[in-house]
Design goal:
The complex is a heterodimer of chains A (116) and B (114). Chain A is mainly β and 116 residues long. Chain A is 0% helix and 48% strand. In chain A, the strands form two sheets. In chain A, strands 2, 4, 5, 6, 9, 10 and 11 form a seven-stranded mixed sheet that branches. A four-stranded antiparallel sheet of chain A has the order 1-3-8-7, with no helix packed on it. The termini of chain A are far apart. Chain B has strands at residues 4-7, 10-14, 19-25, 32-37, 43-49, 55-58, 61-66, 71-76, 85-92, 102-104, 108-113. Chain B has no helices and eleven strands. The termini of chain B are far apart. The chains are: A mainly beta (116), B mainly beta (114). Chains A and B meet through strand 4, strand 5, strand 9 and strand 10 of A and strand 5 and strand 10 of B.
Chain lengths: 116, 114
């Protein structure tokens, strides 16, 4: 297993366009998380899944944002009608549900979004 | 609301010196995480501290956890330039013990000068 993979690594888009990011977690991990990190700040939690079920969404996740994990494997994060304030690094992480013999979260390399 | 506060937020130090980064948090969580981030890169896990009194060491870095004081420290011994990075501490978002994601501090931007 090569860890958590995110695609694309960089995305430049014009304001108002829709963008979609993909995350492939570690294969045996049943939990998957999305975070947003702006310059000079720590990552902020957006949402997470257990298998295909979306268990929680942060209030940071406006109705322009939607995340899916249709088969409990990879996940997508879509941003509709992008705004300049959406420019950030979007990080994906995966883990086992704690108590399954492992603690800790593994992060992907992130997708850097620039909205112009 | 869960808060995680790191200090200092910025630290410039000379090679060979020792220093400590502090992380205070407001939850009753027994777990605390330290990550390293290089510019433009993702987060690299350094330590996962799982209980009160936990101490872990890797090379020139040592992390400890005091759950009663809700305080973790990351100590740097005889710093070298390669340790220049931003260091984040984080705690589980809920104290219920489940893996429901992390709340991060703002990070400590560490520069080590020759």
């Amino acid at each position: 297993d090569t860890g958590v993979s995110q695609d694309p690594r960089h995305k430049i888009t014009k304001r108002g366009q829709n963008v979609t990011f993909r995350c492939d977690p570690i294969s045996e991990h049943n939990r998957l998380y999305w975070y947003r990190q702006t310059l000079g700040q720590g990552p902020e939690f957006l949402t997470y899944f257990q298998n295909e079920a979306q268990l929680e969404k942060s209030r940071l996740l406006s109705d322009r944002f939607s995340a899916e994990r249709p088969k409990g494997s990879f996940s997508t994060l879509e941003i509709q009608r992008t705004e300049q304030g959406d420019s950030a690094m979007y990080l994906c992480a995966s883990s086992l549900a704690f108590g399954q013999g492992s603690y800790g979260y593994t992060f992907g390399s992130g997708t850097r979004l620039t909205v112009v | 609301e869960l808060k995680v506060e790191q200090n200092p937020l910025f630290l410039s130090m000379q090679e060979g010196k020792n220093y400590t980064i502090y992380c205070n948090y407001s939850t009753t969580s027994d777990r605390l995480y330290w990550y390293r981030q290089d510019p433009g890169k993702s987060l690299e896990s350094l330590f996962v501290l799982l209980s009160n009194g936990a101490v872990k060491q890797e090379g020139r870095l040592m992390a400890s956890l005091d759950t009663k004081a809700r305080l973790s420290t990351l100590h740097i011994t005889a710093a070298v330039h390669d340790l220049s990075a931003t260091y984040f501490c984080a705690v589980d978002r809920s104290s219920g013990g489940g893996a429901d994601g992390l709340t991060f501090g703002k990070g400590t931007h560490l520069i080590i000068q020759p």
